[in-house]
Amino acid sequence: xxxxxTRFYDVLLSIYIYNEYTGYMELEKLLAAINKKYPEEQKxxxxxxxxxxxxxxxxxxxxNYFSKNERMPFFVTDKYGYIDLFVKHIFKVKIExxxxxxxxxxxxxxxxxxxxxxxxxxxxxxxxxxxxxxxxIKKNETLLKxxxxxxxxxxxxxxxxxxxxxxxxxxTPLFKEKLTDLWIHYSLMIIKVPFLLFxxxxxxxxxxx
Length: 209
Fold this sequence. Notes:
By secondary structure, the protein is mostly helical. Helices cover 76% and strands 0% of the residues. The protein has helices spanning 2-37, 42-68, 82-91, 100-104, 107-132, 135-138, 141-167, 175-197. Helix 3 crosses helix 8 and helix 5 packs across helix 8 (175-197).
């Protein structure tokens, strides 16, 4: 039971560390594009910068957890990346192919990207609240502290994108976007996470992102 619980923690955190890393790397690109296009929007820029910094902080919290326990995360692919999957379904490209500078110069695409980030963060907030009430997470004080930090930071992450979208009356997610959000969430929880948990061939990373 002890080994299975440890594996559960490691699988969960391997998905989280991938998502946090991808999140802050892509947000850095977005932040640069916003700075270039809207240098006068200092409030918006500051809020996106805080979001970027928080994602990096969360990544480091998970990295430190693995380092202190002398284990590496499991290797997971973009199939387990929430924003990766959102971008793939809505923009029809891989996240690394997303051209932030091109998107920010097209209002329709930029609004779409803002909605995706906003929905991803709202889903993340719901998920962390669920984890904090999970009996298995409550058994691990270190993880409990980490997820409490994330719970505290998460609400502000939706703000900049809601603010920008409301300015243009474009903050309501489209039906396809809502459906995609539900599909990604439940396919991860019901199919993909259990698959990783019981996949005996799953390998650990040789180095951190």
